[in-house]
Each structure stands twice: as structure tokens, then as C-alpha cells.
Amino acid sequence: MKRTLLMLLAATTTWSAQGKVTLPAIFGDNMVLQQQQKVLLWGESDHEEVTLAASWSDTPVRAAVEKGRWKAEIATPEGSYASQTLTVSDADSKVTLSNVLIGEVWICSGQSNMYMPLRGYTGQPVEGSLQTIIQSTQYRDRIRMITLPKKEAATPQRTFKGARWEIPSPTTAVLMSAAAYFFAQSLTEALDVPVGIVSTSWGGSKIEAWMDPASLTAMGYDVEKINADPKIQQRAKCGLLYNGLIAPVAGYTARGFAWYQGEANRKESARYARLMQEMVRFWRAEWGDTKNLMPFLYVQIAPYYYNDAAATDGVQVMEAQCDAQKLIPNSAMIATTDLGEELSIHPRRKREVGQRLAAEALVRCYGVRANCWSAVQVKEVKFEKDKAVVTFDNARYGMTPQHEVVPGFELAGKDGVFHPAEGRVVISKPIVEVTSKEVKEPVAVRYAFHNYTPTTLCNTYGIPVIPFRTDRE
Description:
Helix content is 23%, strand content 27%. By secondary structure, the chain is of the alpha/beta class. Strands 1, 2, 3, 4, 5, 6, 7, 8, 9, 10, 11 and 12 form a twelve-stranded mixed sheet that branches. β17 and β18 (431-435) form a beta hairpin. α4 crosses α10 and α8 packs across α9 (313-327). The N and C termini lie far apart (88 Å).
């Protein structure tokens, strides 16, 4: 009899463990939920129904369980710093998530410059990191970040292990993405609501690893051959990082995406814009964004010598990134032409990256009406006798530096040979006149069109000019 009771007790315990309601790891204590939306939650249960009860609502939400899985939407209020709770339960168990904040959520992804933590890399610092880390506790109710562990996978993953939503402190902030942290810091200061960052990056990764293999096959990639090649790193294989680092969070309700990648795709610059287009299309579909409402903001890769400062393999990726703005609806690139370091592929000035991403987000998402916060780009080029006259967009209040030669320009005549040239800003206008003693009748002009070129040209907000050339075939 005693043995029978023990067996029944063991069976009951096993059934209860199996029957517990569960959520994937993206949902946890300290998380931020997107404000004023019906946010999506999902998980598993062995019962027929689950109930979601939120501290900000008097009305619970019930969701049916189908084949062991459930999905539910729950409306969120306006963002605030008030700590909230969310309980998910079924007939046998419940999970309570505490210290939840309501605010703005962004997905931040890419390769090493997005992953780069506030503490920096070995021999490669983040400017201003010490003060930022020391003061991070001031943002404990304003910034939350979850950093997914690096993982590649052959199939889309439903969850992950080894990561949780972190509250900024001198202990935790050191490992937070610097670019994403400064982005969140700028946003929370501008909007006065909490900001949650889902950080999911891997250094040295190629864009193909973040994409849908079916899209790559349609573009002519032999996905099976590439993914079976032992000489190709996992972070360069088709779809593996999407499966391991995006699929587990796909659908987590967010305002938009911030992307910083491209250095690893210098050999694919000719089709990089199309690759970006296909990746964004796929990601938006996975988030259910059929109307392109989630903005895709991305960072121009910074100038770097890539073993030859005079070469153009790096700057051609920048050119492709610029092209991608025309292919991807509701997208924008921020400029980093002034932030590059010739001998460091990881520039230290990540605060400017975060601030420029935030400025673009404020204009595109949050109703801020501002001129000249976006990257400065060429609007028109005219050749007049012995000079090129270049007019720029996003420089309504003129250009700097004035009263001195602007470096980085080159001119070519009919022979197609480029020579160093002098640029001079036309006072109080978004115009630069470019001349060279070596070129009497210019027909083409370039600016900063090498892997690394020291530059100073920017608008009055300090936003730099994107590298360009007029002789593109």
C-alpha cells in the first residue's frame, strides 16, 4: 500500500511538472513591454486555456492552448516608471513576472560594433565608458537590456538559455552594448519613458547568417553547399544566426530595429543593398509587420584601413548601405564618416552612434519635427569651368568648417584620373566648391571615397557627409 501511494505521488509530481505553464526566456522579470500597443506573448501549457493578468488592467485575458502552445495579446498603457507585474496561469500553475516596465522597445542587432560592450574590447576602449558605467544606476528604472548569448542553429529556436533582462548598475552595465546603451539613454532622456533593448549580435558575422535561406536561394546562393562547408565559419553560414539569435525573440512587440553590420560583407558590396532589403523584409514578416511600420535604422560602417587605407572595398559597402535606403521602406542610415579610426575597426565614439540613432528615431517614430538631424547626402553636383559645385541635403543651416580647406575631396577630368582637391564651404549655404590645380575641366568628383580618409565636413549639428562619388558606373 505504501509503495502504491509513493508511485501515485511520483506520478502526480511528474504530471504537474510537465503541465506547468511556461514562457520563453525573452519574457522575464525586469523586462520592458512596448507602450500603448497590444503586445504579443506566447508559451506552452498542457491545459486547454491560460489566463494573463496584468497589474495595469482589471480585465484578465484568456487564450486557448492548441497542441500545447498558446498566444495572447494584452493591451499596454502609456509608458511610465511604475513597476508592474504580469501573471500567466493555467489550471495547474502560474508564472509571475515582476518589476516589469512599460515603455519603448527596440531590437538592436549586427556584428561586433553593435555587440561592443561599454567596457570595450582588449586595447579598444569606448570613449566615456567609465563615467557612463559609474552613473548607470541612475537609469535603473529607465533602461533595461537583455543580451542574447551567441548561438547558431540549424533550425529556428523557440527560446534561449543563459540570459535575462538586466538592470543597469556598475556591475551589469560593463557588459551592455555601448551603441545600444547610448541609444537607449538618449531616447529615455528625450521621451521620459523607460526603454528596453533586445541586444542580439555576433562579431564578424555576415548578413547572410541573419537571413532567410529561402531568400538567399532565390538570389542564387547554394545554401546547402555553403552551410556544409567546414571552412566557412558558422557566423557566415546562411540563416544560422537568424535561427539562434532572432527566431527566439521574433514577434516580441517592439517599436523598431537598429542594425550595425557590414564590415564582414566587403566582398559582397555589389549585392549588399539587396541582401539588406531581403533581410528586412523577412524580419518584418516574422514580426507580423505587413505595413512596414517598424522603422529599420542602421549605421554606416565607419572608415577603417582594411589593410589598405587607399582601397575602396570598405567604402563600397557604405555606398551600398546608402543605396539600401531607396529599397527598404521606412528605413534610414546614420552617418559615421567622422567617427572612424584608421587602425581600429571598433571606433571608440559609440555615444555619437547612439545619439544619431536616437535622433533618427525621434523624427521617424515620435513626432519630433526637426531639420538636419539625418545624414548629410549629396543633392546635386554641377561642373562649372574649373570647379565642381556640390549641394547637400540635410544641411539647411550651412556646412562646417568654414574659412578653411575641407579635406577628402578628389577631382577627375576626362582622362578619369583622380587628383587631390580642395573643398571650400560657401558661407551660410549647404554648398561646397571643389577645385584642383591638376584638373582644369573636372567631370567627376569624389568625397572620402577610400577605406579611410580623414574628414571634417558636416552640418551645423555635427552630422557628417556620407562618402560619395559621381563617376559610378
